[in-house]
UniProtKB/TrEMBL annotation:
InterPro entries: Beta-grasp_dom_sf, Mopterin_synth/thiamin_S_b, ThiS/MoaD-like. Transmembrane segments: none annotated. Pfam families: ThiS. CDD domains: Ubl_MoaD. This is Molybdopterin synthase sulfur carrier subunit. It comes from Phenylobacterium kunshanense. Gene3D superfamilies: 3.10.20.30. SUPFAM superfamilies: MoaD/ThiS.
Amino acid sequence: MSIAPVLAGDPPSASSVASVRVLFFGKVSDRLGRELTLGIPAAGCPLSRLRAELCARLPGAAEALAEPGVRAAVAQQMVVGDTAWVRPGDEVAFFSPFSGG
């Protein structure tokens, strides 16, 4: 699935648009699906902005991403908080705690 050609508030110039692949795992994927492609500014953006855009555009995203224990990874690196910088071509993942063995 692909949503939004570019994050809200950015000019729709072809040279300013890039994309990231967003993956969802665990209970988050139960609510939002497995993955989507999201347009971001070519210069990148903070994870907080990407998360806010997901919450604004996907029904149920605000609740799913606010669940206790939901974590994020950018470019396959776990991140704490939403200050990580997301660059074009990065893979961003949101996942809930897993159980089992």
